[in-house]
Amino acid sequence: MTLRLQGKHAIITGAGRGIGKAIARKFLLEGARIVVCDIARDRLETAASELGELGDVYALAGDVSQASFCDQLVQYATSVLGTVNVLANNAGIALFAPFLQQTEADWDRTMAVNVKSMFLLGQRVARVMIEHGQGGAIINMASTNGLLGERDLVAYNASKGAVVLLTKTMAIELAPYNIRVNSVAPGSIRTDMAIEGGVDESFVQAYLQKIPMRRHGAPDEVANLFAYLASDEASFITGDAVVIDGGQISEE
Ligand SMILES: NC(=O)c1ccc[n+]([C@@H]2O[C@H](COP(=O)([O-])OP(=O)(O)OC[C@H]3O[C@@H](n4cnc5c(N)ncnc54)[C@H](O)[C@@H]3O)[C@@H](O)[C@H]2O)c1
Fold it and tell me: Could you tell me if 95 and 156 are in contact, meaning their C-beta atoms sit under 8 angstroms apart?
């Protein structure tokens, strides 16, 4: 059986836990060689040693909102992997506050981590892909919150909306180089980020009524979609925002 990501060399951001770690695991199982990064060094080291049992994993800790770290990460990836032909821009944060109370600092940090990082890394990785002349795939993590509003998440929603249009613009400009750029828009996925939002069980039960499939998604389900979009099977898909939400935003 041919593995779908055999011969692919990928960078995955925010891979210390949650969906990013699931993407890293799936990419390895599909034959990719990977570089993982996370701002939380201990978390990254633990994840990398677990993932190392599945294949070639290299780890670099740092903050993807910093241009200097993005430079370092892409240089490191090209030196250990030879080239980069897949970028999974997954790292993101969600800071909860009502619109009237959200601080300027929270707004700036959310935009820097959730949007600027994808611009910075996307630009750097695309330059490497163009230099190698073999195309590539970039997948940016958006959210259903980038397509519809949700209370108490104003900066997060605005950042994820920006990811959707950053992606479409990158897709248009990078298409001549056979670089496909898509975003993924998950609904509610059960991860530490979702739990840190401070949800109680009665809220969770009420929330599930808004999802036609009556359950949260699992990180592995989102990782499967990333693997598909990274693979050559998705060769004519670019510029899309692919929703994975159990039907949540299909129902009024
Ligand atoms: N969990 C959900 O329901 C859900 C839904 C839609 C979209 N998403 C998006 O999926 C992505 C992953 O979410 P998750 O639920 O796995 O979150 P998570 O908090 O469990 O994991 C995110 C990881 O990113 C890392 N990170 C944060 N800031 C970083 C930075 N500046 N540089 C490098 N690494 C950084 C964190 O340390 C963490 O390990 C995020 O972009 C999130 O917005 C999540």
Answer: yes
**Domain map of the chain by residue range?**
9-247
- Can you say how many angstroms the Cα of residue 155 is from the centroid of all Cα atoms in its chain? 17
| pLDDT tens digits, one per residue of 142-160 | 999 999 999 999 999 999 9
Distance 115 CA to ligand 1 centre (A): 12
Residues with catalytic function: 156
Question: Tokens in use for 124?
Answer: 């750097």
pLDDT digits (tens, 9 = 90+) for 169-213: 999 999 999 999 999 999 999 987 766 666 678 888 888 999 999
The pair of three-digit structure tokens given for residue 70, joined into one six-digit string? 């993005």
Ligand 1 geometric centre to CA of 1 (Å): 32
Ligand 1 pocket test: pick from 11, 23, 26, 38 the residue with the most ligand atoms within 8 Å of its Cβ: 38
Query: Which architecture does CATH list for 9-247?
Result: 3-Layer(aba) Sandwich (3.40)
Which is the closest atom of ligand 1 to the Cα of 92? 41
